[in-house]
Amino acid sequence: MAAMKRIKYLALSFLCLAAPMLGALDFQIPEVLGISGFGTTLTEQITTELPGKSHETSPFYGQTPRSDIMVESASNNIKAPSNGTIIYVQTEAPVKTIFSFPLGGALAVRHPESYLSLLSGLDADQALKFSKQDQTTTQDVPAVKKGETLSGGSGSGVYPPNCFGLRLFDAQSALWVNPVFLASWIQDRTSPVIRGAKLTKFDDSGTSPFDLSGAAVKEKRIMCVQGSYRIWVDAFDTIIPGSSLHSAPYRILVVLDGKSIIDTSFIAANCSEGGLSFLGNPAPSRETLAADGSYNIGQIMLARGEHDLQLQVSDYAGNQSSLKTLIIAY
Amino acid sequence: MHHQYAMKKRSYSAVLFIAAIFFSLFSVRITRQEDAVEESIFLPFSQAQDVASVPSSRNAFLSFVGDSALGYVDTAADRLYAQPYQGKAAIDNQGWITYDRLATDVQLHGTDGQHRVLMAYAYPWFKASWRILVRSDQMGIARFNNQGSILWGKEFSMPITALDASSQVIAVGLLDGSLHIFDAEGALVFAAQAGFQDIQTIYGIAVSGDSKYIVVLKGFSPQKIETYKQSESSYTRISESPLKQQAVLQATMAFAEDDSHVIIARENQLIYYNIKDNYNKQIELQAEHNESLDKDEDVQFFALGPIGRATIAVLRIKVPDPLDSEVLILKHGLLRRVAPDAISVSEGQGTLAIVYRDGIELLKGWQP
């Protein structure tokens, strides 16, 4: 029964949110062993792997939410997700005296319906092969076919071996789109994990944050001054069971006294002059994250009195975790 | 009469013969002349001093990054300071940075002996006193100082595809064709926003050393070279030159010091672009230097940078074997010198330092 509910939720989410955005795009994320999803902190992987580089204390340049996904393949190859015209090829320089860009070997592909994708982490020879396709006249344009095997060699750019980056841009809406809904093969039955949640005064008046979870909450009750607060949520999800790659959750809902007051998701990132905006926060994308990796999910107003606050965090498949707290505002 | 005719014929022949000698000498000078150098000295890495012993006064010093060693060369005392490094590196006259491919271990070193871990998930890029971090997703840059503190950062809505700087400005080109130019404080000097519907990717950028010009390689079928000129406190597009050769590969570009031209290197193509007369042409090296540059499709060119007046250094690498490399020195796009097995160059103080895998060759009295 619960599984049926989840499938229904997933289908509904896809139909309501993703389907109109993705239109008739023939794009399929190949089956892989792991996914670091859209919205995941870019530094998530290195801060969990390296001792002494905990993201809980250090300001880290590059600690921003992903506007792509990183996939871990079973081999050093990946299948091209869609047909398209290649408009840009980047390779790693064969010598260290030439600067190479961090995405390593990369292909930017133009698709029908005003979509653009970028596949990165490719082997230099593989990327060069595409740049050498016949272009003797302006009518000859290099192309890639859906399902074509693309090699990553021993890894390129910032990608570990067998890992690739994949991003999808909707040029009509000026959005970087979360492509996870284009991986119909995913079967995720594990709920996201809420590591923590906190309230901070909206005016940044210097008061300590109020922890909504963990040992600081005595009998799930906190007391705070009435006023406006930001809510920060630290949560992760594992999209593919058994994978070591963590992901941001998909949707976060805040219910205050029975009313839904925040409903936000990582469905897409908006583009603006200031950069990228996630979860309704202004650009640049670092505005979405606290130094400890928590997501800024919005603002609530706490009037004097008792309040029931419920936090619901769900993943792409509709699996859900929640946190309930009683708040007494004085 | 017959004798006079024979004399005249002999005189003509002699004149023609002398003219032919002059012509052949002249043509050789056009294609093969090497620029004036007073002295050449080779300093092997095996005899280099430790970089930690670099003196604080470094007026005649040039910095370099080689294949496995980095450091400084004292062009006045002919002394080399070098140390081996792992992974990748960038260097300037204040220090250097080493980093691994995954960008998980970024280490900042100062010539004052200071050393710290830089908390960044990014690749460092140094040029013309700029210390820049290119974010791991290529969606942002940040400027940092000698202590590793971030001075300012910019995020873009599209991945960065091209980057270049003079001492005053940094120019950033994006996948959608947008061009952003910032000053040293991070203030936006100029922006050419592109429409997302009609993507005109920027494949390469070159900023002139005096910041007067910025040349951009952009567009897709057809491609073009756009020139922007500094006007008051911003930039104005002044010309556009269509390219005959189409390619979607990211390019490296370098501006001549005298602002006369730009060399564009991408894959096995070298393109000369003349700023003043707004024309471009493909450089055919084979005709000028047959013995070294055989016709080979599997080579890659990279523009290294200006090395005085109208001279630009280019790296040529054989694709299957990166150890097979040479540095080409081009003057107005014409080949002047070849340094076989070299991998980089550094220029200044009237000296050209050619970086090899086993040491540095100093060409003193360098007058291109």
Question: What is the N-to-C succession of helices and strands of chain A?
Answer: HEHEEEEEHEEEEEEEEEEEEEEE
What is the level-2 CATH architecture name of the largest domain in chain B? Beta Barrel
Overall average residue pLDDT of chain B: 89
CATH structural class of the largest domain in chain B = Mainly Beta
Q: Report the total helices of chain B.
A: 1
Number of strands of chain A: 21
The beta-strand count of chain B equals: 31
Q: Which structural class is indicated by helix and strand composition of chain A? A: mainly beta
Describe this structure in words.
The complex is a heterodimer of chains A (330) and B (368). Chain A has two domains: 2-182, Glucose Permease (Domain IIA) (Distorted Sandwich), CATH 2.70.70; 193-329, Immunoglobulin-like, CATH 2.60.40.10. Chain A contains three helices and 21 strands. Chain A has helices at residues 2-22, 44-49, 124-131, and strands spanning 34-36, 69-72, 77-79, 84-90, 105-111, 115-122, 143-144, 149-151, 163-170, 175-177, 193-201, 210-211, 221-224, 227-236, 251-256, 259-265, 268-272, 275-277, 295-302, 305-314, 320-329. In chain A, a hairpin with a 2-residue loop joins strand 17 (268-272) and strand 18. The longest helix of chain A has 21 residues, at 2-22. The radius of gyration of chain A is 21 Å and the shape is elongated. By secondary structure, chain B is mainly beta. In chain B, the strands form eight sheets. A four-stranded antiparallel β-sheet of chain B has the order 1-31-30-29, with no helix packed on it. In chain B, a hairpin with a 2-residue loop joins strand 19 (224-231) and strand 20. Classes of the chains: A mainly beta (330), B mainly beta (368).
